[in-house]
TrEMBL record:
Coiled-coil features, chain-numbered ranges: none
Domain Luciferase-like residues, every copy: 43-332
NCBIfam families: FMN_nitrolo (TIGR03860)
Superkingdom as given in the UniProt entry: Bacteria
Positions of transmembrane segments: none
Name of this protein: LLM class flavin-dependent oxidoreductase
UniProt keyword list: Flavoprotein, FMN, Monooxygenase, Oxidoreductase
InterPro entries assigned to the protein according to its UniProt record, in alphabetical order: Diverse_substr_monoxygenases (IPR051260), Luciferase-like_dom (IPR011251), Luciferase-like_sf (IPR036661), NTA_MOA (IPR016215)
Organism for this UniProt entry: Nocardia callitridis
Length: 466
């Protein structure tokens, strides 16, 4: 490992481009299903393959899928509003979706969200190791601790565990997963048909892990993968979450409302990476942004007005606010003021309120406004205009040391990505800000990340020399 750098500069001269996906009836923008050109075949594997090929044509580094393990049901203790208004009631299993995308592409990175709270380390390690092999080294794991009681109740638990306890489990979880990924050394398999020796047993390691949360014998039933370990994505926004990301993540997904906030966050997060003993150039910080592009500026603004004002039902917004804060807002009006008393009584709302206030200032904040920031385009910065105008806006963010690239959120599928690839990517390429072609065969190679050594290889070498 090279010595940690403390100055905060972009790690390369080109942006990392990541597509934010949902295996769902909607994108992260909950009104997307209502847009006239949104494709209705989201239950067909060809839908995801078409999007993946579009992203690969645009030389995106990665597509990754958000996930929840429950339908939104906190509001009114019912799924009725989520179902009625299409507020993310559908979430397909991501294993099959990414398998389909892998078969349709050759270079695009493939990421999925898996929870450390409701899965087991062996299952997650095997899932992503298998994907990494079958895709030729393109897997990425988005590490989450899950968000609410509805998810808990689908896994035989009454209530979601408290924040720090979830991160305690996540720390042990990811430690076990990385050791399982390393449990086969790279040269363990000999495949010697003449002698009948398939692999060197001294290079396949049992973990015998006995921790607070897990007891895992190992080894993994999947040999070490093309990347060594799949790429790690993390999006923690709390103090504990940012520290966790600094220790483990290769890509950190953020939700900063403005460039000024993003610059501050970028510098703080890079400092945390350095404090964790890592080279800051090995970790990329990527804010989520919406891009609305048109052949003319007016066409782009007309589309923006539709997305802002016409497609998201207010009850869908409130349903999703209840989901993310793990609080039932059924007893409130959308026009209720968000008071200090409300903030104190809802454990999952403080960070969201702080982020929105940094965006809007000190004006009184209503539940309607707060909910809209979770369900509409208000939740993140927007780049709106023609291809050259958007390329200029993205370049300003990148060159001002506010990010190392972007997570592009779609206003609708598949058109938002098709427009971006057709109208914006050539402009970014002309400016030298994104790649023209893929430089490596694995996701780590395309991101410029080193392949990690197995934690067990030094142990074996020391033992052999003793």
């Amino acid at each position: 490992m090279s010595a940690p750098r403390t100055e905060s500069t972009p790690r390369t001269d080109r942006m990392t481009l990541v597509a934010f996906m949902q295996a769902s009836n909607v994108s992260v923008y909950s009104g997307s299903w209502r847009y006239p050109s949104s494709a209705p075949d989201y239950l067909n594997l060809r839908y995801y393959q078409r999007i993946a090929r579009t992203l690969e044509d645009g030389c995106f580094d990665l597509m990754f899928f958000d996930d929840r393990l429950a339908m939104p049901s906190i509001y009114g203790n019912s799924v009725a509003d989520a179902v009625t208004y299409g507020a993310r009631p559908i979430k397909l299993d991501l294993t099959a979706v990414l398998g389909a995308a892998a078969a349709a592409t050759e270079h695009l990175g493939l990421g999925a969200t898996y929870s450390t709270t409701y899965y087991e380390p062996f299952h997650v390690a095997r899932t992503f190791a298998t994907l990494d092999h079958l895709s030729g080294g393109r897997a990425a794991w988005n590490v989450v601790t899950s968000v609410n009681d509805a998810e808990a109740q689908n896994f035989s638990v009454d209530a979601h565990s408290e924040h720090d306890r979830r991160y305690d489990r996540a720390e042990e979880f990811i430690d076990v997963v990385t050791k399982l990924w390393d449990s086969w050394e790279d040269d363990a398999i000999t495949g010697d048909k003449a002698t009948g020796v398939f692999a060197d047993a001294t290079k396949v390691h049992e973990l015998h892990h006995h921790g607070e949360f897990f007891d895992v014998r190992g080894p993994l039933t999947v040999p070490r993968t093309p990347q060594g370990r799949p790429v790690i994505i993390q999006a923690g926004q709390s103090g504990r979450g940012r520290s966790f990301a600094a220790k483990w993540a290769d890509l950190i997904f953020t939700g900063d409302p403005s460039r000024a906030v993003a610059v501050e966050h970028y510098n703080q997060q890079k400092e945390l990476v350095a404090q964790a003993g890592r080279d800051i150039d090995t970790v990329r910080i990527l804010p989520m942004v919406y891009v609305i592009v048109g052949e003319t500026e007016q066409m782009a603004k007309d589309k923006e007005a539709i997305f802002l004002n016409e497609l998201v039902h207010p009850m869908a917004s409130l349903t999703l606010l209840s989901e993310v804060t793990n609080h039932d807002f059924a007893g409130h009006s959308l026009d209720d003021i968000v008071t200090d008393e409300l903030i104190d009584s809802v454990s999952g709302i403080r960070g969201l309120v702080q982020g929105v206030k940094r965006h809007l200032g000190d004006q009184p904040l209503t539940l309607r406004t707060l909910a809209n920031h979770r369900a509409t385009l208000l939740q993140g910065p927007r780049f709106v205009g023609t291809g050259p105008q958007i390329a200029e806006q993205m370049g300003e963010w990148f060159q001002s040391r506010s990010c190392d690239g972007f997570v592009i959120a779609a206003t609708h599928f598949p058109g938002a990505f098709e427009d971006f690839v057709r109208l914006v990517v050539p402009e970014l390429q002309q400016r030298g800000l994104v790649q023209h072609e893929y430089s490596g065969s694995t996701l780590r190679e395309n991101l410029g990340l080193e392949r990690p050594d197995s934690v067990f290889a030094p142990v074996r070498e020391v033992s052999a020399g003793a």
